[in-house]
Every structure is written in C-alpha cells, then in structure tokens.
Write a structure and sequence with these properties.
Helix content is about 65%, strand content about 0%. By secondary structure, it is mainly alpha-helical. The protein has a two-stranded parallel sheet with strand order 1-2.
Amino acid sequence: MGRGRGAAGPRPARGRVLSTPGALEDLLRELAPQVLGVLLRRFGGGFDTCEDAVQEALLAAATQWPAEGVPGNPKGWLVTVAHRRQTELWRNESARKRREETAFAQLPPDQEPVDARDDTLTLLLLCCHPSLTTVSQVALTLRAVGGLTTAEIARGLLVPEGTVGQRISRAKQRIKASGARFGLPPESELADRVSAVLHVLYLIFNEGYTASSGSSLYRVELSAEAIRLARQLRERLPEDGEVAGLLALMLLTDARRAARTDADGGLVPLAAQDRSRWNADAIAEGVDLITATLARAPVGPYQLQAAIAAVHDEAATAADTDWREIRALYELLHTLAPGPMVTLNRIVAIAMVDGAETGLRELAEAEGDPALAGHHRVAAIRAHLLDSSGDREAAAAQYRLAAGRTLSLPERRYLEQRAEELAE
C-alpha cells in the first residue's frame, strides 16, 4: 500500500497472517471507511480531524500487522488507534480540557467490539458534498472511502502529491465551513446527492480506463477502485437502477481492457481487438446485471450506456455488432441525457448504419457545440469516416490533427500511425 510508519497501536496477540501482500492493502481499504464512519458517528468531532486520525491508524496497521499478524478484531483495533490519535489532536485545540474529559470518558478498551453499522453510503455522500468542486470530490472520495494514500491518489491522477494534499485539505475545510453533518441527507435531497456520487465514481473509472494524459493508456488502480466502490454502493442501494447500471457499465467496459493494448502498450481499436482476451466472467456479470435492472427499474443514462456496452461485448466479431440496436440506444440516450460525448458516439453509430457520408454531415453540424471545439475525438472520428468514404489524403490530415490534440501518448502514436499508413 506504500504507507509509511505510523503511530504504534495496541500489541495484539500473534494474529493471523495474510496470504498475499495485496491482501493487507485490500483489508485496509475495506476497513478505512468503516472506521471513519465509527469515529464520526460515535465520537463526533470534525471530519478533518477524524479523517486524519484514521489515516494515522492505517499507517500503524500497515507497519505492525505484517510483522505481528492481523488482530482478531481488526476494525476494533483501528478504531482504538484512530480514537487515541483523534484525542491527541483534540489536545492541541483551544478547548482541549473539556474535550479531553469527554474523550477519555468515551474511550473504549482495546479492541472493544464495534457495531456492524455500515457508513459507506453516508461517507460517499459527504465526500461528494455539493459545496465541493468535482476535483475535490474525486480526491476526497479516493482518500476517505477508497482508503488510498495521498501519494497513491497523486500517482493515479498524475498530479503532484502536494496538489492532492491541498485539494483534500481544502475539501475538509469546506465541509466544516458548510456545517455538513455526518448523516444521510433528507429524502428530498437523496436522489441528487446519489447522482453526484455516481458522477464522481464514473469520472474516476473513466480516468482509469482511458487516461486523459501520460504514457499509459489506462491506470488500472483507478478503474479497479471505482468498480470496488460501485459494488459497495450497490450493496447499500440494491433497488437503485442507476447504481446497478453504472456498475454494469464499468464491468462491461473494463472487461475489454486486456485486449486494448498490444505487447508494446500500443492502442488496439475495438474493431481490431482479440475478443478471446476479453474477460468473459465480467461480461456475464455485467450482462446479467443490466438485463435484470432494465426489466424492473426506470431507465436511466447509465443503464442505457451499459446496454450499449453489452451489445458490443456480446458480438462474436466486430462484423457481428448490431449497430442498429446501438444507434437506437444512442438516440434514446441523446434524448434522455444529451452531452458532447453522447453526440459523438451517436454519430459513429449513425455512420455505421447509414454510411460514412451521413456521419460526416452529422459531424459537421455537431462540431458547432463549443464543448467539442478543438477536441481530438472530433478530428479522429472525421478521419475514420473520411477513410471509410475513400478519401485517404483528407483522412490522413485529420488523423495528424487529432494526434496533435490528444495528451495521451498511446492515442497519439496510434493516430500518427494511421496517418502514415494512409499516406503510403
């Protein structure tokens, strides 16, 4: 997990030894939001103080448990250590005497059993509080709910560690200033707040699946974390169709990851991928999930995108893809939740059904949208459609234009390669 040394925690009797190095990381990430929830609910205090205390406890566990074994009640161990650290932090504040009396009166004995209440949903909603900017919501969610360290988040987002630290610090200050309390919002606000959580999780997934910049096409740690959090969210909201839709969309999309790059890390487009390398288990889970959800829940944007991904995944070959169904789904999505990327994907589907010339006309109309101005995908799609219509010279020029606009090195190399092939 890459955590440094933390404060020493209670010495457990020799505990169980985890079977793999990654098992400790998985366990700490699973327990992090649970422990934070216990501190916020049981002992109160500010979100910032509690979150700092939990990070200290995770550091201590990462240091002690590999050598001494995992205690019988790891959650209770972490709660005890975190609460002690929280108390130390309180001592440094102006009202320390009064708080110390309260804190020590409530201090549980070592590894006291803690209740099994799950606060993951409440934490997700707090981390995606409307007072925060989107980038702050992403960073705080990965830290407080995902259990990632500041350094891990910085590596995943390709930003300096200091920047991530500042975002998290400002986010905690904003939450404190907003007066937000640790608890579920009123029923009237819940749908919008859950929608914000889904948006943040999808942003995290997308950045992991197709990195917006850098030398790698994807960042597995981010997409895997988004899927893990989406699973947790679905466990808390099993009847929410859009939560299920988002999880299905992630599974069906991530299932193709292994086939998206060649041995040199180069991009392999969907039509050219070796489909035997797709993850059949993830596809089966995603298809089952979206099929069951569409049959019972009001349709929503994530469900429609999952349905589109399922059509792609169920085609034995690229030629077998049912583009008419995909176009129909994009027409519905365009009506329900229009957006620049939906517009571009819909145009691709239209071109696959009605021909490249029709797609080019639709693209010419769409690029008037300021959100698409200068976007490399507009040039890349135009290049593909020009190539399909037989205009190789114009297609090569558009591929070069798209290559110059993307910040992703694998995408750039692929686009430049296509331009060179057409110029021969």
